[in-house]
Amino acid sequence: MAMKIQRYKHDAEVSYTLGATLTFELIKCASGRITRVFVSPEARDEGGIHELIEKCRQLRIPIIESEKAFNILSPKGNCFVIAEFRKEAGTIRQGNHLVFVNPSDAGNLGTILRTATGFGLTDIAIIRPAVDFYDPRVIRATMGAAFHVNVEYFDSIETYRERFPDNRLYAFMLQASRPLPEVVQSKEEPFSLVFGNEATGLPDIYAELCSAVIIKHSRDIDSLNLPMAAGIAMYEFTKEQWNRE
Amino acid sequence: MAMKIQRYKHDAEVSYTLGATLTFELIKCASGRITRVFVSPEARDEGGIHELIEKCRQLRIPIIESEKAFNILSPKGNCFVIAEFRKEAGTIRQGNHLVFVNPSDAGNLGTILRTATGFGLTDIAIIRPAVDFYDPRVIRATMGAAFHVNVEYFDSIETYRERFPDNRLYAFMLQASRPLPEVVQSKEEPFSLVFGNEATGLPDIYAELCSAVIIKHSRDIDSLNLPMAAGIAMYEFTKEQWNRE
Q1: Test the B interface: residue of A21, A150, A183, A235 with most B CBs within 10 Å
Q2: Which of A44, A125, B125, B139 has the fewest beta carbons under 10 Å from its own?
């Protein structure tokens, strides 16, 4: 009984890794969630596809050699392996968090999750409406980091705060007056670093809900882009930990 | 005598701003370099196109209403104004620099230049072979910052060092042992922050030519992406200046 192959949909039960590197990372981190692996008849051994197929065989993951899956899931080509895997609703743990309010861009979210994995901030709350973490474009932009993070969606910042009343919230906004290097010196844990939408930032109300923080820069740009602001904030809030030894 | 409209080429004398926001920034920073402005017959007043046309008239910049330019220069559409402008070979000044060795991605270079403008590091050396700064995809990804930076190409790091023998070079590499927060505490000016290619990083020889620096992160990612590493480095090396007041 072959399941149909469909273009990714937000309400589907499965998503896809487009490419060999991503698929390797999925096998390493969560092979139990893989339902099947598509291999293009045009695949050569670039990116170690034979090794990948061998691993799938060992793990008894079904391998399907078919061009059709690629036409549907990766019409622009340039991809010779795709794993189909079960989506799981994430649950974030107590501790330090990142909170993204209404992020809208798939590539940006992917870049952010890669950086977050790099700095060990792997519990990530997303406030709806927002881009779908399981969109294959997000998964691809994480370059594998998607399988190292817990991402949980919330309907509002209030719902998030009720679950984590002890977290100290730091909101990154251009309207803030306290600069990042100063705030970091007296930071409290567990912390939540809160960022707004790419185009509109955080609503003014966040300056009351949270400690508002600014990353100062010249007036020749409107703002840093979202992944950059988030990356700089993550670096500052975690650098002690990474440079302790 | 109408000049032909051609797809952008590396050896052309002109480049293009795809979009109204970019074109506004070009008018503000370097209107004298604009040779003509194309306006799509489909343009409505979104993005203040009437205001832009009015400015061009005041500045006696030729305005051409034509669909053809858009089919050639922006075939994917979603753009209603394009300015054609003269390219200028940049010359960087004495002072702090960024140095990019063989950067290859247009979007990355654009993001980097935007961040560099934000942190006031506007003199940028690029070591060939490298992506073309005047590629309209780079210009677009800077979101206007392209017109605030001086970008100069060099054939080798040696040529660059001969011109700027007093600059202290800091090379960002995964093989380094000294972490960024430590290096910054004893930084010397004028400094040059040196970054390698997206995929391959800096050759080992840079550890001898420069002070090698690492931005420490978890082993769950191979590396930070290039714009992120560069942005974090720029933030650390300039934050005193931005937070002085």
Answers
A1: A235
A2: A44
CB contact under 8 A, A218 and B117: yes
pLDDT digits (tens, 9 = 90+) for B149-159: 999 999 999 99
Of the candidates A145, A221, A242, the beta carbon closest to that of B114 is on A221
Give per-residue pLDDT as tens, A170-220.
999 999 999 999 999 999 999 999 999 999 999 999 999 999 999 999 999
Check: pTM over 0.90? Answer yes or no.
yes
Closest Cα of chain A to B114: distance in Å? 7
One-letter amino acid identity for B198?
Answer: E
| Strand-by-strand arrangement of the B191-195 sheet | B150-154, B123-127, B97-101, B191-195, B168-172, B211-214, B178-179
CB B218 to CB A119 under 8 A? yes
Q: Which positions in chain B touch A232 (Cβ < 8 Å)?
A: 231-232, 235
C-alpha to C-alpha distance for A156 and A166, rounded to whole angstroms: 17
Q: Is the pLDDT of residue B44 over 90?
A: no
How are beta strands A178-179 and A211-214 bridged, if at all?
Answer: parallel
Contact A224 B143 (CB under 8 A): no
Q: Nearest CB to B118: which of A117, A179, A221? A: A221
